[in-house]
Amino acid sequence: MTAVRFQVAALSAALALCTAMSSPALAQKKYDSGASDTEIKLGNIMPYSGPASAYAVIGEAEAAYFNKINAEGGINGRKIKFLSYDDAYSPPKTVEQARKLVESDGVLLIFGSLGTSTNSAIRKYMNEKKVPQLFVASGASKWNDPKQFPWTMGWQPNYASEARIYAKYIMKEKPDAKIGVLYQNDDFGKDYLKGLKDGLGAKASMIVLEESYDTSEPAIDDHVVKLKAAGADVFISITTPKFAAQAIKKAAEINWHPVRIISNVSASVGGVIEPAGFEISQGILSATYIKDASDPQWNADDGMKKFYNFIAQYNPKANKLDAGVAFGYAAAQTMVKVLQMCGDDLTRENVMKQAASMKDFAPDLLLPGITINTAPDNFAPIEQLQMMRFKGRQWELFGDIISSDLNH
Question: CATH second-level architecture of 160-288+389-403?
Answer without folding.
Answer: 3-Layer(aba) Sandwich (3.40)
